[in-house]
Design brief:
mainly alpha, disordered N terminus
Length: 325
Amino acid sequence: MSVSSENMGHSVTREILSYLGLANKTAAWGTLGTLRTFLSFSVDKDVQRLLRAITGPGVDHRTIVDVLTNRSREQRQLISRAFQERTQQDLLKSLQAALSGNLERIVVALLQPAAQFDAQELRTALKASDSTEDVAMEILATRAPARLQECLAVYKHNFQAEAEEDIKCETSGMLRDLLLALGKVLQQAARPSPENAWILIFTQRSPEHLIRVFDLYQRCTGQAVEEAIQKHFRADAQAALLSLASVIRNTPLYFADKLQLALQETEPNYQVLMRILISRSETDLLSIRAEFKKKFGKSLYSSIQDTVGGDCRSALLALCRAEDI
């Protein structure tokens, strides 16, 4: 290699690494997801590998994880359809019969279309969870508009109910109005109020605009907007507004904080780990990893490796993808 070509190689490497360091630039070089389209994809080979993994002498967990965590969601859907056509068996049901526990839950989530996965998580949060505000806020505030609308349509189809009606039944007060506004179904209030003003501004302005508003608010009042929220609001409304402010300021950091909390529980919160790693694996998980390492001084990969046990650890590590030095 010539000196000039070697220098060019170093230059390109530095450029790529510089992008990786910009955790808030979620599309700096196409995608900051850890999981991308597999270039050597062969649907027939993957179907055969999965069939052997399921029907061979003993279930081959490693092969199942290797295939499903190295293919994009679109490719996984192609595999699922091809498996049905070639074997006359449903891949999801076959894997559910072969697996159990948290690994089964991860595999089911990997094989679901994104909107179906979100709809199921939202339904569970609203109907059978003690963390309604947290999960509903995450889904309604962090999904792209088109994906959110698809999620709400799937919710209606699968559960024969409008998410709007379930939000009204399961929540109340300002939290209810905030979630409805995030779902773009809140009607204009008849009488303006300070609470409605906060909801209107937080849900109908772009993140870029709101960051400027937050900065100007602090310069004018001498306090951060989060301090104002803690002063003026209580309970679920306070928690929801603080979460939304975190999303607006830095979405990858918001997810990094949630992952750290999930890992710090007495028993790791596998549902949170699974939901975030799967839902962000094709968008900005590299950014989340960077924010995690920056704030907590330890990589997300190492944290999962040290905390999570059982068969699902290999799947979560595969989604995380690599160590951050």
